[in-house]
Design goal:
The chain has about 230 residues and is α/β, with parallel strands linked by helices. Helix content is about 40%, strand content about 15%. The protein starts with a strand and ends in an 8-residue tail after the last strand.
Length: about 230
């Protein structure tokens, strides 16, 4: 049975992807900073035979190494890794932004993503597996003074670079680039946004393709409101 590792798995896109991955026949590894929600989700998904919860701060290289070690001890392999952990901006633009928040975004959204790739690539390469990165529409278009958007531009570029690194190995890389998603990422509900399940279905679509099909990028946007 194949193994699907997800960072940022405690809620939103990560949790929705975990549910669909188990439905698709994967064992799942749920990683996030806090394990409270992860452990409840792991039980929901069938317990230790199908899902395990691992505390991991993606900014920390040792945490990420330990995540992979625990995964291999439990399931013996990694076939899909989804670098999904990310944080958003606490203020608008540059002038009114918070430098500490910028630091956290850079370390989580960029460094964390690269570290997940570093620790998972030996398994992904060996198993001709799949590495996915959560980018954003904000990583394709300019937004006024957005440091968050800049981190997602970096994820987009890194995804392209990673694909070049794995060229010829049989392993695949997919950028998942949603527009606004109604998840705990935001402080208030976003009724006209995408749902986490919409993005999760795109992830499962990408990893479900035959070996000769490499889904490079999926840009997912909510349908514009009628009359807008």
């Amino acid at each position: 049975m194949k193994t699907f590792l997800i960072t940022g798995a405690s809620s939103g896109i990560g949790a929705a992807t975990a549910r669909l991955a188990v439905e698709a026949g994967y064992r799942v590894v749920l990683a996030a900073r806090s394990t409270d929600k992860l452990e409840r989700l792991a039980e929901e998904l069938g317990g230790q035979d199908k899902a395990i919860a691992i505390a991991c701060d993606v900014e920390n290289y040792e945490d990420q190494q330990a995540m992979v070690e625990a995964t291999l001890a439990a399931f013996g392999r990694i076939d899909v890794a989804f670098a999904n952990a990310g944080i958003g901006a606490s203020g608008a633009g540059t002038e009114h932004g918070d430098p500490e928040n910028w630091r956290d975004m850079v370390l989580t959204n960029i460094l964390g993503c690269a570290l997940t790739a570093k620790v998972c690539l030996p398994e992904i390469r060996k198993n001709r597996g799949h590495f996915l990165l959560t980018g954003s529409r904000a990583g394709r278009l300019p937004f006024k003074g957005s440091v968050y958007g800049a981190t997602k531009w970096a994820v987009t570029g890194y995804g392209y670079n990673l694909r070049e690194e794995l060229a010829g190995t049989g392993a695949r890389v997919t950028l998942i680039e949603p527009g606004m998603v109604d998840t705990p990422f935001f402080d208030e509900p976003k009724p006209h946004a995408l749902r986490a399940e919409d993005v999760a279905r795109a992830v499962i679509y990408a990893v479900s393709q035959p070996a000769h099909v490499d889904v490079s990028e999926i840009l997912i946007l909510p349908t514009p409101e009628i009359g807008s």
